[in-house]
């Protein structure tokens, strides 16, 4: 079992993803915006942080940049989820410090498989 943070502003998608990952046996913390995600990252250690690209308050890119600037958190593994699937968007996420990128839409099974691959 891994502990994951899921930061996604779309409530229905957040619930679907959270339920899928909990069914896989993971412990999930949720955040609905970038500020809440950053506060949870500061307060807890996660095996994987799953961030939406476009969120209120701080975007996923801004959260990544802030996390990478914190010495004790800079090695956190981060998966960026985004409806922005252009190569330039993926490049921006990776340059900001994302370790992995997954374009929306995706099926819960695809996300589950991706996360299991990352956590190996």
From TrEMBL:
CDD domains, per database record: REC_OmpR
Organism placement in taxonomy: Bacteria, Bacillati, Bacillota, Bacilli, Bacillales
Record-linked SMART domains: REC (SM00448)
Keyword tags: Phosphoprotein
Record bears the keyword Isomerase: no
InterPro entries, sorted: CheY-like_superfamily, Sig_transdc_resp-reg_receiver, ST_Response_Regulator
Record-annotated Response regulatory domain positions: 3-119
A Pfam family it matches: Response_reg
This protein's name: Response regulator
Residues bearing PTM 4-aspartylphosphate: 52
